[in-house]
Amino acid sequence: MSTMQAVKLVDSEAAGSPELRRFEDIKPPEIFAELKHGVLGQDQALRFVSVAVYKHTTGRMPGNLLMIGNSGTGKTTVMNNIQRLYNEVPEYQPFRAVTIINANLLVDVDRMEFRPSRLLKAVEQRARSLAGHKPSPAALKHAIERATICVDEIDKMAAVVAGKPNAIGVVLQQGLLTLMEGEQLAYQVHAWVDGEEKEVTLDIDTGHMMFICGGAFEGLYDQVYNRVLKPGSGERLRTKTIRTAEGKVRMETYFSLATYLKPKDLFDFGMVPQFMARFESTVLLRDLGIDVLREILLKSFESPFVRTRRFFEVHDIELEIDDLAAALIAEAAAKDSRTGARALRPIFTDLINPYEFDPWHDDKLEARDDGGWRLTVSADMVRDVLK
Ligand SMILES: Nc1ncnc2c1ncn2[C@@H]1O[C@H](COP(=O)(O)OP(=O)(O)OP(=O)(O)O)[C@@H](O)[C@H]1O
Ligand SMILES: [Mg+2]
Fold first, then answer.
1. What is the CATH number for 311?
2. Which of 41, 55, 177, 208 has the greatest number of CB atoms lying within 10 Å of its CB?
């Protein structure tokens, strides 16, 4: 029996299912497919995440990840979907203590101290919901040590912010790196021993936790671009061949962060080298093109369209959208490259709000055969709000 199964946890969901698979049998492609329901257009990044989850759940050393991507490309969405994955796959019950926290909450600025207690409290809270209502110390320890810790907005805790030294950033990075290396923490909890609730001290080994940090790293793109272009940098922009519509061929230079990013660029940005060394991989999220934005609008769980459709179901109104209407919204959202997929929401909300307020305010509702109603978002409706 592996250490993973050594402690029996109370598990209402899993208890009902006859046969749980071994963690080894839930392979990265299956993890990837599950994550992809909620994260679109980031397949490359999700492959890394899937492997990291596989390593974590099979008890190998966790593959800690650093995610870098522009605002609205899905970093926080990836974290939310890791949490959803652990909640939805019954076998992953022991790993459900997923905690997503902003980096700045892990430090006390006045005292210039790293404060892991806030993190552990959040983890403990999740662990308690797994370990039943009278958890033993062992069950709590088991759930806490298998936690996944997602630290968001990590770039705001760089050693340099807006050109000025940021000492608290160094404090945070050093504190986190110690946790990631595997620290023994004495942590006090209330747990049940011999039928009584007692205060006990758990020795928490953080070495099996998985850490996923993410940030937009604003300015990194320009920083690396300028380094590459600098005379004597020893690098040059790559070229690619473009074939125009008239069949002419020309060469174009192009730059992508993924091609040129070196560890040193992150150090220059203000990341502590020893902290960076604790990540198995750095994953870059792509900027989202029109096609992905359209898919996000139509399919992702959090999409304003999908949510509004659920809202209208309550009134027996089926919400639909024309292909062209969806494409126009995606195209308009893509123009605002600073906000990524976030740009979909205001456009859609402006358009749909009058119908949420009063679906019958104009004559767009059609009667369905079964007595309900149908509202179809048309290209004209989109053009009206975009004016
Ligand atoms: N790849 C994606 N797949 C599905 N939805 C996405 C994706 N990227 C962004 N979204 C949607 O856009 C919104 C913002 O995304 P998210 O919060 O993940 O951005 P972020 O990368 O964390 O940005 P920031 O750096 O500003 O925090 C969310 O509502 C999410 O549903
Ligand atoms: Mg975010």
1. 1.10.8.60
2. 41
Domain final residue, candidates 215, 243, 258: 215
Number of structural domains (the chain) is: 2
The boundaries of the domain holding residue 162 are 3-215
Mutate which of 71, 77, 297 for ligand 1 pocket (most atoms within 8 A of beta carbon): 77
pLDDT in tens, 322-364: 999 999 999 999 998 788 999 999 999 999 999 999 999 998 9
Separation of 76 CA from ligand 2 center, angstroms? Answer: 4
- From 82, 342, 347, the mutation candidate for ligand 1 (largest count of ligand atoms within 8 A of CB) is 342
126-174 pLDDT tens trace: 999 888 889 999 999 999 999 999 999 999 999 998 889 999 999 999 9
